[in-house]
């Protein structure tokens, strides 16, 4: 589809590349984000990819056309282009030059998870909802490869696609006021991991001892869009040992 471009205030635009969450749209989002990482234009501040959009933050006062190097005021004095008009032109030109077969290099990240018990208080409820045993839910959840579509909601929170419909479960009617960092949850047809202690309404089925958000690290988020996540079931003793080694 033709990308839809619309302003977000006077220093950002959102580029919509699809209407649904799917691998094809994800590749287009990653391709556009990668294009601007390789070919930044004067005035570019930040690129933020999401499920179906790429948000481009820019400085209107520093904005320059990367081809003509003109500012918004045309050099021959013939007129004035608004920063929004210029950024639209830059984005449309970039979108026309995208490699639509783009495949980002995916890192496979194994995430150990201790399922059930106090660490996964909703595991039994998820199992009952689907007429499964808790062990079957664990087997299904840990046998999938999950694509990180985006990082959002909280620092380092990965939205993972690929959850089996057999265990897709609606969010809780009443959100919890506090969920511990590392907790793995199911919300509808997605699964994710709470990287910090925060309120939330997902069904909690386990917890990982790995820190997903490391504020003092040069790369604070353990995961990034395009990564592949594989969950590895571990016991409570392993969880406690791993947790101790990670602190």
From TrEMBL:
It holds the Pfam family CT_C_D. InterPro entries: CT_C_D (IPR003833), Cyclophilin-like_dom_sf (IPR029000), PxpB (IPR010016). The keyword Metal-binding does not apply. It comes from the Bacteria. Keywords: ATP-binding, Hydrolase, Nucleotide-binding. GO terms for molecular function: ATP binding; hydrolase activity. Gene3D superfamilies: 3.30.1360.40, Cyclophilin-like (2.40.100.10). Residues 3-223 form the Carboxyltransferase domain. This is Kinase inhibitor. It comes from Paenibacillus elgii.
């Amino acid at each position: 589809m033709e990308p839809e471009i619309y302003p977000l205030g006077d220093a950002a635009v959102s580029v919509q590349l699809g209407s649904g969450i799917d691998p094809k749209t994800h590749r287009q989002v990653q391709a556009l984000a990668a294009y601007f990482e390789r070919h930044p234009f004067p005035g570019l501040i930040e690129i933020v990819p999401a499920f179906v959009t790429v948000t481009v933050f820019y400085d209107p006062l520093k904005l320059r056309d990367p081809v003509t190097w003109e500012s918004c005021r045309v050099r021959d004095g013939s007129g004035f282009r608004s920063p929004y008009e210029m950024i639209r032109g830059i984005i449309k030109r970039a979108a026309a030059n995208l490699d639509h077969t783009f495949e980002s290099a995916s890192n496979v990240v194994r995430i150990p998870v201790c399922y059930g018990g106090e660490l996964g208080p909703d595991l039994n409820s998820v199992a009952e909802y689907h007429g499964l045993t808790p062990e079957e839910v664990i087997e299904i959840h840990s046998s999938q490869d999950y694509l990180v579509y985006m990082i959002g909601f909280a620092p380092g929170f990965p939205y993972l696609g690929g959850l089996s419909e057999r265990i897709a479960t609606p969010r809780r009617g009443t959100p919890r006021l506090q969920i511990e960092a590392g907790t793995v949850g199911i919300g509808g047809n997605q699964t994710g991991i709470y990287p910090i202690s925060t309120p939330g309404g997902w069904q909690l089925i386990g917890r990982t001892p790995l820190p997903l958000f490391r504020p003092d690290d040069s790369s604070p988020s353990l995961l990034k869009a395009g990564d592949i996540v594989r969950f590895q079931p571990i016991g409570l003793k392993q969880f406690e040992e791993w947790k101790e080694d990670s602190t």
